[in-house]
């Protein structure tokens, strides 16, 4: 598991540190970002959504509003 996280982190750094000189290379980098991080972002989004559902269904669990704020940030990130 740690190897996957380290590999994902190193790929992210490789993409973030590359400098582009024209629009075509920039589009390729955006496509790589989507390909690499789509599964990770979707897994995190599903987890956060499930926490919000649990907080709504079972208020006695005392799940804080933090999860709703994180979910709101994810929604804003995805649609901006």
Description:
The chain is mostly helical and 80 residues long. Helices cover 80% and strands 0% of the residues. It contains three helices and no strands. The longest helix has 35 residues, at 23-57. The radius of gyration is 17 Å and the shape is elongated.
Give a quick rundown of the structure.
With 80 residues, the protein is an all-alpha fold.
Radius of gyration: 17 Å
Poorly predicted runs? none
| Basic shape | elongated
Helix coverage percent of residues?
Answer: over 70%
Mean pLDDT: 76
Strand/helix succession: HHH
Tell me the number of strands.
0
- Please give the alpha-carbon distance between the first and last residues: 31 Å
- Estimate what percentage of residues fall within beta strands: under 5%
The main pleated sheet reads as: none
Any descriptors?
80% helix; elongated; mainly alpha; 80 residues; single chain
Helix-strand blueprint:
Blueprint: H1 2-17, H2 23-57, H3 66-78
Helix pairs in contact: 1-2, 2-3
